[in-house]
Amino acid sequence: MNARIRRSGANKKTLGQFLLTHLKNDWQIYVLLLPAILYFFFVHYLPMYGIQIAFRDYKAVYGITESPWVGLKHFRNFFGSYYWKRLFANTLLLNIYGLIAGFPIPILIAILLNQTNSKKFKSFTQTVIYVPHFISTVVLAGMIYIFLSPTNGIINHLLTSMGRNSIYFMAESRWFRPIYIITGIWQNAGWDSILYIAALTGIDPQLYEAATIDGANKLQKIRYIDLPSLVPIITMLLVLNCGQLLGSNTEKALLFQTPGNIDTSDVLGVYVYTMGLGGGQFSYTAAIGLCLNVISFIMIILVNTLVRRMNGSSLF
């Protein structure tokens, strides 16, 4: 027993000495890490103290700890409300359609650019497809309203020139999702392709040379070299995107929302914004946000497990 205690003490002392020596030798690395550690602590972890307002009837004059505890009252109120099913359905459908339509496009862009031999054309194309990402959401919404205007919009001018009636796109529910998804793809597909391009850049050129010698064409190189190399990054981004199926670009949805399309544009993000900042119901909206985060976390775990069983590659 005494020998075991002495051995344990020696191991702790050895571990302490190891950590101290490691810190002394690599202190520059820890200094570089310190801003990132402080950022995540103060911005992401410390505010988690405020999660408890989801279980309290929060009043600013009382503060968090002095506000009365109400338990699951706000959760029951939300799931007992008239609109919660529509909110969930609209948000989920919007993100599922966006994932199906938009997720493969950055992969396709990266593969096509990787197979392009002209460096000038490749650089020009990358610059052009990256630019929309830097357009603010407010400017984007203004552009869409102008292009789709029923009287002066270029789209309706084309429709009327072909003998069709003009369409008030922003006032019809059936057009909200296509407009939201297409503009999202246009704005972000090029930027999202950067990770895939970086992964393809890391492929050993000798693999392409060997494939060329064996008589492989470009499609065969894409199938047997490019796609297998992209599987890990595709898996990681797919799992992360599935965790955001109940999220949304609140600013964009709010700007695109009109009285005519509210049946499909009424998503959870807009509802939380309206009830929280507009209605001052901080505890109620905090409960909704906490519920969505828990569901998103469960979805990430489930999708990650499913993907790992299917191809052996996963996020964690």
Summarize the structure in words.
There is one protein chain. The protein is mainly alpha-helical and 316 residues long. It has a single domain (56-311), classed as MetI-like (MetI-like fold). Helix content is 73%, strand content 0%. It has helices at 2-25, 27-45, 63-66, 73-79, 84-102, 104-114, 119-130, 137-147, 154-161, 173-201, 205-213, 218-242, 250-256, 262-265, 268-278, 282-311. The longest helix is centred in the C-terminal third of the chain and has 30 residues, at 282-311. The protein is flat. Residues 1-12 have low confidence and may be disordered.
What characteristics describe this protein?
316 residues; mainly alpha; MetI-like fold; disordered N terminus
TL;DR of this structure?
By secondary structure, this protein is an all-alpha fold. It is flat and about 75 Å long.
Radius of gyration: 26 Å
Counted by DSSP, the helix tally is 16
What do we call the CATH homologous superfamily?
A: MetI-like
User: In percent terms, what proportion of residues is strand?
Assistant: under 5%
Helix content: over 70%
The CATH topology comes to: MetI-like fold
CATH class: Mainly Alpha
